[in-house]
């Protein structure tokens, strides 16, 4: 029999799952734009979330769910595959090799030291920039923002599809504001229902295409990665970006969740931080093998922690709840892009929160942070934002007579940044 504490962990695991379950739909909708099968990416997403969250619970003992990371999936699709025209098989190979780098850095505890060497204002700005990038993708997927020869980008005129998206965005925002559990997932489902009449009762084309409810899992992406081509010099910036983006994301998430829940060891560090980072590294490595973008710890796990989750049992329960969705790919494939677009837009709102921690009156920190934040969405590249943020930080600190604030690790990172620019 489960005791009272165990039941609390079960409830917390269910709550954490509801908060993160939107990734089951959103990740395939993003990666399918890279030419990958929706159903196969869905299978890979569920398997990665299950194995990674299970490892976080059993090995690291933390109440944190792990799944394909938002921002990393956008980078994979829009920067690497579409922007750089890298075949998705080769991009999966880059994910795998970045996972190997993560694992080495995590096992020898180098990863934590590197991240701590990166100035906090840049960490905050990069997180916010990735949030803006995801928001931009959401607006584009909804057809709200389009290209305009005169102004580069512009807003579309109202039409039935756009009105449906705006209704879904408003509803999802209301659910989040009301702190309804599973608000993002409910918003996706309600927007899908609202989109069903499009092309049937009004509008020019059918948006929701019903293909059934259940089917066997699609394992067609399993081991489809290209190990060899991923090691070419031109992909060094890609691996570099996967490494550093995931490092910022996972470590800041784990630190933030541990601080909020007081899950700290005797030295005031997040509990089992090394094991948690190893878990994150393994998740990224197997992501390439399974056929999806890198895995990372989810900040939405805070919902489970708020519900009383303190141990790895919370993550184990959440992991198990992912499994049934292996068999629901036809049902989930009916969810259109305009239904997941509100989730993308509002995820950006979650991720931009750290920007208030930047001191905007100290120009040698504010300008690099600003450049990192805006160049990510403006260049449609996380890599560019990170690189120019690092280089401008080093330049302004140097000419301000504050070279002592530039860590040795930052100088090494700058060297790699310049190499990455030259290669690209």
TrEMBL record:
So what family is this one in?
Belongs to the nucleobase:cation symporter-2 (NCS2) (TC 2.A.40) family. Azg-like subfamily.
This protein's name: NCS2 family permease
Q: What is the lineage of its organism?
A: Bacteria, Pseudomonadati, Bacteroidota, Cytophagia, Cytophagales
Q: What is its main location?
A: membrane
Q: How does it sit in the membrane?
A: Multi-pass membrane protein
Q: Transmembrane region positions?
A: 7-24, 30-51, 63-84, 90-110, 122-146, 158-176, 183-202, 222-244, 311-328, 334-356, 368-391, 406-423
Alphabetic keyword roster = Cell membrane, Membrane, Transmembrane, Transmembrane helix, Transport
Xref: Pfam families: Xan_ur_permease
List the PANTHER family hit by this protein, alphabetically.
XANTHINE/URACIL PERMEASE C887.17-RELATED (PTHR43337), XANTHINE_URACIL PERMEASE C887.17-RELATED (PTHR43337:SF1)
Q: Please, which domain of life does this record's source organism belong to?
A: Bacteria
Q: Where in the cell is it found?
A: Cell membrane
């Amino acid at each position: 029999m489960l005791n009272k504490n165990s039941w609390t962990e079960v409830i917390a695991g269910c709550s954490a799952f509801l908060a993160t379950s939107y990734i089951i739909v959103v990740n395939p909708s993003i990666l399918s734009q890279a030419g990958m099968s929706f159903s196969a990416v869905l299978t890979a997403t569920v398997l990665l979330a299950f194995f990674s969250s299970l490892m976080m619970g059993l090995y690291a003992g933390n109440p944190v769910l792990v799944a394909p990371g938002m921002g990393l999936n956008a980078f994979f699709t829009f920067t690497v595959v579409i922007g750089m025209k890298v075949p998705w098989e080769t991009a999966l190979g880059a994910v795998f090799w970045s996972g190997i780098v993560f694992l080495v850095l995590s096992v020898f505890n180098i990863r934590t030291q590197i991240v701590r060497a990166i100035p906090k204002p840049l960490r905050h700005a990069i997180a916010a920039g990735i949030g803006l990038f995801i928001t931009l993708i959401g607006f584009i997927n909804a057809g709200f923002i389009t290209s305009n020869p005169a102004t580069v980008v512009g807003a579309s005129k109202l039409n039935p599809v756009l009105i449906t998206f705006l209704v879904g965005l408003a509803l999802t925002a209301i659910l989040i504001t009301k702190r309804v559990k599973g608000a993002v997932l409910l918003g996706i489902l309600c927007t899908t229902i609202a989109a069903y009449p499009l092309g049937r009762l009004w509008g020019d084309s059918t948006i929701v295409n019903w293909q059934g409810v259940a089917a066997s899992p699609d394992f067609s992406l399993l081991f489809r990665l290209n190990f060899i081509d991923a090691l070419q010099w031109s992909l060094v910036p890609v691996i570099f970006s996967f490494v550093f983006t995931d490092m910022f994301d996972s470590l800041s998430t784990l630190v933030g969740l541990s601080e909020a829940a007081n899950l700290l060891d005797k030295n005031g560090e997040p509990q089992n931080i090394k094991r948690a980072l190893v878990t994150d590294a393994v998740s990224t490595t197997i992501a390439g093998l399974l056929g999806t973008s890198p895995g990372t710890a989810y900040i939405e796990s805070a919902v489970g922690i708020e519900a009383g989750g303190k141990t790895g049992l919370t993550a184990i329960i959440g992991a198990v709840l992912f499994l049934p969705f292996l068999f629901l790919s036809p049902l989930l494939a009916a969810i259109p892009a305009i239904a997941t677009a509100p989730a993308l837009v509002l995820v950006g709102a979650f991720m931009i929160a750290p920007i208030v921690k930047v001191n905007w009156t100290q120009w040698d920190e504010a300008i690099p942070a600003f450049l990192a934040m805006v160049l990510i969405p403006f260049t449609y590249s996380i890599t560019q934002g990170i690189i120019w943020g690092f280089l401008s930080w080093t330049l302004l600190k140097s000419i301000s007579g504050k070279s002592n604030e530039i860590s040795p690790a930052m100088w090494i990172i700058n060297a790699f940044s310049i190499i990455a620019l030259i290669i690209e």
